[in-house]
Design a protein that fits this description.
Structural class: alpha/beta
Number of strands: 28
Largest sheet: 6 strands, mixed
Family: Belongs to the glycosyl hydrolase 3 family.
Mean pLDDT: 94
Radius of gyration: 27 Å
Region (Disordered): 744-766
Bound molecules: 1-deoxynojirimycin
InterPro entries: Cellulose_deg_GH3, Fn3-like, GH, Glyco_hydro_3_C, Glyco_hydro_3_C_sf, Glyco_hydro_3_N, Glyco_hydro_3_N_sf, Ig-like_fold
Strand order of the largest sheet: 1-2-3-4-6-9
Catalytic activity: Hydrolysis of terminal, non-reducing beta-D-glucosyl residues with release of beta-D-glucose
Keywords: Carbohydrate metabolism, Cellulose degradation, Glycoprotein, Glycosidase, Hydrolase, Polysaccharide degradation, Signal
Shape: globular
């Protein structure tokens, strides 16, 4: 294990990092122009940065923000758009403040599944586990609990949810932070998380915009360009941008860019993705921040729409403590390089996000330090000579969140196979347990920084998306609590000389597969599973095979970040049951054993496809290795990832996306479809923008005096401030007054705001509101027609587009569009379920028209209803509004 880049909580690492960076020298602050990428992948020039302040759902927040920002000096405006520097405050990111006006420093903290690098918090199940519940209510409730914990610790911004990566590459390191390899599953889960977190007053930071589909070579550094995700316009809209659109619609107040480049232009200064896609098309009104140390230019990134630099350093945090924003942004404003309407827009977006969440009213201050666990410590560890004080108050924010954490972990448990109904097993069965994954890490549950080891029960992946466990309810403790006859071999090598097996013996074999962030290497894997591939870790295949040779009843329990290949053992007759428990967080024990012993039925479903072999995937989704120049990651499979690819190419998976068995069985009746809003080929025109309050601000360059330190102000060494020395301020102002221009304005640069009509697909908070018009509603009754077990049914709706001879609109065989989960239904019990199809769900993105198009509004859309992407109980037709049961699926 070694430390490579961002995100380490330890002051020591910070120190070594900035000393090392001094040796390497700093990178230039100039814009890094888009690199050549294969045709036709272009990061089109898109200027100017759209002003905020024209969307109704932000109107109140903007009204207040405009008042506050109008009173700010230039240095106050630029102070709140920059971070104070790596390890220069209690949180992983800390903004500057405008204290004079009551605008505080904001605390930004990881991560998506719990408050990182602190104590007394809940380690929730990971995103991928949450996706596997296919339950919107649980997704929301997990968000509520997360929001309460982040707020309780005094965190203003929750650095999540992660909806990019989308999970295009099965080996990619951080897919588990998100919710599954389907844009709609990812979008619903992301949006519900945003709502849950923000309903508590904590700001959600939707990340990472965009194309962060692998870890290796994700970052730009002095030696090499970060990887370029080359994405065509249609795949961008139908896959990768989709969850961002829904997250923006759900009200996310902030968005974070990614490390990689998109179509040759680094994400943090990519005018096409920030200005064009996010702010103009999706009408995003809040601020856009960099990922950590992904900031690479001052003026160029501001013009490209970036609003906040995190953690505030230049690309490499050098000893003198330099920044691209802060004092440099003050200079750029005075000398006219960055127009004042851009500066006002940046500051207003930040303040509006704060007001939108009501954080102006008694929001707690940070009461923890992500730098140390001691009560007292350095206030600014990277300052070299830092004052110290009380930094940790050990506030316990867990409340009763273990209940929702356990419920998510449990309802994600996905039963793939259950031959001969081996499960559930009786608590009196002789149970033989194998595998180190069954027991918590004996070295300590939080032994490895950011979970950068795979030892003991795998409850989460590694990196900034991890959190400390308050405890770990491991499977073996729970098994021993519940069952009378449990023997455990805490080893991954199948023991020799075991007593003969009896016919009643049940062997439980625990295996795992881990991945994480590229900041650590674990067992030869650099974030992505580049070494292990999709094979179970720690010789898991052999452990299962040997157990299957000895015992005739084998249950395999898998803790995993994503797909694994089970081919070596899945068809062994003794391997009767396979259970994916995903990444359960702290509640790995009872959540699982209650399912194994039949106290509850499993109800989780696969949030990705399980292949027979890794060669089932297209070559383009392999990990692109390090190389000379900028690594090119060309998304040549277009819209065909995961099950869309398998289905198009007739590749039979081991288990299909959405698959998951129950002990109960379900039937559909009263299936109906109702047409709601009539469809036209293109959506009705988008609404006009309701005014431009940023243009109405005082956008003239202020006097140089607005850039100066208040009298008597004492600096902390390496802290990033927005002030300029008097001479610098005067010189910058003189340059501006002389009409000097920024020498390398990007091609296509303009200062004229775009009219609404120029972006037909655009609109406030997510895009043209007509895209959300309900086109059809499918309703049905789900009945538990089993006799022995209660269970929750997952109902999934997949759209099949009408056959069309227009090759332009080639569409996947099936696409998930909605899902719902019932309550636990007792045998014989029923529940009414409703599933919705919106205009966007029956549209394709037309890159020429730059709009969403319903290819054939009068044609026959088929709405397949089932419990997996290959298992259907009913189908409805859009043209006749008839529905049928008992029709096999389209494959
Ligand atoms: C880098 C990660 O990519 C991002 O997700 C995280 O929020 C920041 N580091 C801060 O730790």
């Amino acid at each position: 294990m070694h430390f490579l880049s961002s995100g380490s909580p330890s002051g020591l690492s910070a120190l070594s990092l900035f000393l090392l960076s001094d040796l390497l020298g700093t990178t230039a602050g100039a814009a890094i122009q888009p690199r050549a990428v294969p045709a036709p992948y272009v990061a089109a020039s898109y200027y100017p940065a759209p002003h905020g302040g024209w969307a109704d759902d932000w109107a109140d927040a903007y009204e207040k923000a405009l008042k506050l920002v109008s009173q700010m000096t230039l240095a106050e405006k630029t102070n709140i758009t920059g971070g104070t520097g790596f390890f220069m405050g209690p949180c992983v990111g800390n903004t500057g403040s405008a204290d004079r006006l009551g605008f505080p420093q904001l605390c930004l903290q990881d991560g998506p599944l719990g408050v990182r690098t602190t104590d007394n918090v809940t380690a929730f199940p990971a995103g991928i586990t949450t996706g596997a519940t296919f339950d919107k209510k649980l997704m929301y409730e997990r968000g509520v609990a997360l929001g309460q914990e982040f707020k309780g610790k005094g965190v203003n911004m929750y650095l999540g949810p992660s909806v990019g990566p989308l999970g295009r590459k099965p080996r990619a390191g951080r897919n588990w932070e998100g919710f599954g390899s389907d844009p709609v599953l990812q979008a619903f889960a992301g949006a519900e998380t945003v709502r849950g977190v923000q309903d508590q007053g904590c700001i959600a930071v939707l990340k990472h915009l965009i194309g962060n589909e692998q870890e290796i070579q994700r970052m730009f550094n002095v030696g090499q360009q970060g990887i370029s995700a080359n994405i065509d316009d249609r795949a961008m809209h139908e896959l990768y941008l989709w969850p961002f659109a829904e997250g923006v619609r759900a009200g996310t107040a902030v968005v974070m860019t990614s490390y990689n480049a998109v179509n040759g232009s680094a994400s943090s200064q990519n005018a096409y993705s920030i200005n064009g896609l996010l702010k103009e098309e999706l009408g995003f009104q809040g601020p856009v921040m960099t990922d950590w140390l992904a900031h690479m230019s001052g003026v160029a990134s501001a013009l490209a729409g970036l609003d906040m630099s995190m953690p505030g350093d230049t690309q490499i945090p050098v000893l003198p403590g330099t920044a691209y924003f802060m004092y440099e942004m003050t200079r750029a404003a005075l000398n006219g390089s960055v127009p004042m309407d851009r500066i006002n827009d940046m500051a207003t977006r930040v303040v509006a996000a704060w007001y939108k969440l009501g954080q102006d009213k008694d929001y707690p201050r940070p009461n923890f330090s992500s730098n140390t666990r001691a009560r007292t410590g350095l206030l600014y560890p990277a300052a070299v000579f830092s004052p110290s004080g009380v930094v940790n108050q050990y506030v316990n924010v867990q409340a009763d969140h273990k209940i929702i954490a356990k419920q998510v972990a449990q309802e994600a448990i996905t039963l793939l196979k259950n031959n001969g109904s081996l499960l559930p097993i009786s608590t009196s069965a002789p149970i033989k347990v194998f595998g180190t994954d069954a027991q918590a890490n004996p070295d300590g549950i939080n032994k490895c920084t950011d979970k950068s080891c795979n030892k003991g029960t795998l409850g989460m992946g590694w990196g900034s998306g991890s959190a400390d466990y308050p405890y770990m309810d491991d499977p073996i403790s729970s098994l021993k609590r519940k069952a009378g006859n449990v023997e455990f071999w805490n080893t991954d090598s199948f023991p020799k000389n075991l007593p003969d097996a009896t016919a009643d013996d049940v062997a439980l074999v625990f295996i795992s597969s881990d991945s994480g962030e590229n900041s650590y290497e674990v067992e030869g894997n650099h974030g992505d599973r580049d070494k292990s591939g999709l094979k179970a870790w720690h010789n898991g295949d052999e452990l299962v095979q040997k157990a299957a040779e000895k015992y005739s009843n084998v249950v395999v329990v898998v803790h995993t970040v994503g797909p694994i290949v089970m081919e070596p053992w899945i068809n062994h007759p003794s391997v009767k049951a396979v259970v994916f428990a995903h990444l359960p967080g702290q509640e790995a024990g009872d959540s699982l054993t209650e399912v194994l012993f039949g106290e509850v039925s499993p109800s989780g479903h696969l949030p990705y496809t399980l292949p027979v072999s890794e060669s089932d995937y297209p070559e383009s989704v392999g990990i692109v290795p390090n190389g000379l120049g900028q690594p090119q990651d060309t998304f040549s499979e277009g819209i065909y990832i995961d099950y869309r690819y398998f289905q198009k190419n007739g590749v039979k998976p081991q288990y299909a996306f959405g698959h998951g068995l129950s002990y109960a069985s379900f039937a559909y009746s009263d299936v109906r479809v109702q047409a709601v809003t009539p469809l036209t080929t293109v959506p009705p025109a988008r609404p006009a923008k309701s005014g431009d309050p940023i243009a109405a601000m005082n956008n003239t360059i202020p006097p140089a005096s607005e850039a100066l330190r208040p009298e008597g102000f004492k600096d902390i060494f390496r802290y990033r401030y927005s002030f300029l020395a008097e001479n610098d301020a005067k010189n910058a102002y003189a340059d501006g007054a002389a009409g000097k221009k920024y020498p390398s304005l990007p091609p296509g640069y303009s200062t004229t705001q775009k009219e609404a009509g120029q972006t037909p697909a655009g609109g406030p908070s997510g895009g043209n509101p007509a895209l959300w018009d309900v086109a059809y509603v499918v309703s049905l009754t789900v009945t538990n027609n089993g006799t022995a077990h209660a269970g929750k049914a997952s109902t999934q709706l997949y759209v099949q587009f009408p056959a069309t001879d227009n090759a332009k609109y080639d569409t996947p065989v099936l696409q998930l569009r909605d899902f719902a989960k019932t309550a636990a239904l007792a045998p014989g019990e029923s529940e009414a379920v409703e599933l919705t199809i919106r205009r966007k769900d029956v549209s394709v993105w037309d890159a020429e028209l730059q709009n969403w198009v319903v290819p054939n509004p009068e044609g026959r859309f088929k709405f397949w209803i089932g419990d997996a992407s290959d298992s259907f109980g009913a189908v409805c037709y859009s043209d006749s509004t008839a529905c049928e049961t008992g029709v096999p699926g389209p494959l």
